[in-house]
Structures are given as structure tokens and as C-alpha cells.
């Protein structure tokens, strides 16, 4: 039984092997370039957050891949993002919401009462806000959090709920 030779005496197996190795090297190169750009974007984001007067914290549920959505316990939908606005330059702990240290990205004054505004114009009141496991491991603009909310809906005052969220915290800026 003879092995069929193709151009320049290369076998079919050798051709498939070389194409596979070439494809693998190309994927590694593209991934490396993408990671370099992602790291640069995150560093820029954190720098601009530090210098900004107002930041937006999006409290998001789920993994980093699905972190753009959060379940709204009021309506049971998954397309509402909870938005909390704070002033990072004020670390007195007397903010309307809560405060944080803009130099270290560490949160202080956790547990203060505040207002959590949903993008659909519902309003609920935070009675217990605890941020834990602040870590840069998930990316320069991510941290994990635990949030317990006892809420009263201003549209339906008779509706109250007590719920604990665990997920990711994304730092954005205006």
C-alpha cells in the first residue's frame, strides 16, 4: 500500500497537520493582540474614573460574559440595569448613597441608606448595602459585590421586597 504524494512530495496528513498548526498560531496571535488592547482600555477607564467628578456604578448579575443584564425583582424582567450615582471625590461618608476612596477604589461607609434608581424610573430604598470581595481579578473595571435591598416601589407603594443580589460591579463614568 502506497501513500499518495501531493505537490513537492507532501502527504495529505502533512498538509492537514501544517494547516492546523498554522491556524492555531494565528489564533494565539489574535488573542494576544486582543488582550493587549483590552488591558489598555481598562487602564484608561480606571484613570478617567479617578479624574471624573461623577461615576456610574452598574450593579450587574451573572458572569462577566452576561454582566450587562440584571433581574428586576419588581417586574421579573432581565433588561433593567440598576444605576447608582456617587461622587468619588467626597469620602466623608455623608453622601446620599455611599462613598468610596477614589485612590484605591475601595468602598467605605458600606451599609448606609441610599436610593437605588432603576432605568425604568422605579425607585427603591437601599437599607443594607454591603460590597465585599473587592478584587481586580475580574478586570480593572470589575469587582464582586453583595447587595441586600429592602425596597418600596414608588409606583406601587404596597409592594415591598427584601432581596439579596450577588454579582459584579462595573465602574463606568460620565
UniProtKB/TrEMBL annotation:
Residue intervals passing through the bilayer: 12-37
Keyword list, A-Z: Membrane, Transmembrane, Transmembrane helix
Name this polypeptide is given: Prepilin-type N-terminal cleavage/methylation domain-containing protein
Amino acid at each position: 500500500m502506497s501513500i499518495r504524494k501531493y505537490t513537492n512530495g507532501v502527504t495529505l496528513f502533512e498538509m492537514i497537520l501544517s494547516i492546523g498548526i498554522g491556524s492555531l498560531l494565528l489564533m494565539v496571535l489574535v488573542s494576544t493582540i486582543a488582550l493587549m488592547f483590552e488591558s489598555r482600555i481598562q487602564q484608561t477607564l480606571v484613570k478617567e474614573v479617578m479624574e471624573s467628578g461623577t461615576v456610574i456604578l452598574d450593579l450587574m448579575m451573572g458572569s462577566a460574559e452576561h454582566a450587562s443584564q440584571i433581574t428586576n425583582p419588581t417586574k421579573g424582567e432581565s433588561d433593567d440595569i440598576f444605576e447608582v450615582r456617587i461622587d468619588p471625590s467626597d469620602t466623608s461618608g455623608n453622601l446620599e448613597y455611599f462613598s468610596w476612596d477614589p485612590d484605591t477604589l475601595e468602598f467605605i461607609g458600606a451599609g448606609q441608606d441610599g436610593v437605588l434608581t432603576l432605568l425604568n424610573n422605579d425607585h427603591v430604598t437601599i437599607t443594607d448595602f454591603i460590597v465585599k470581595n473587592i478584587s481586580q481579578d475580574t478586570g480593572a473595571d470589575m469587582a464582586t459585590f453583595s447587595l441586600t435591598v429592602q425596597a418600596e416601589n414608588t409606583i406601587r407603594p404596597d409592594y415591598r421586597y427584601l432581596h439579596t443580589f450577588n454579582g459584579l460591579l462595573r465602574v463606568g463614568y460620565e
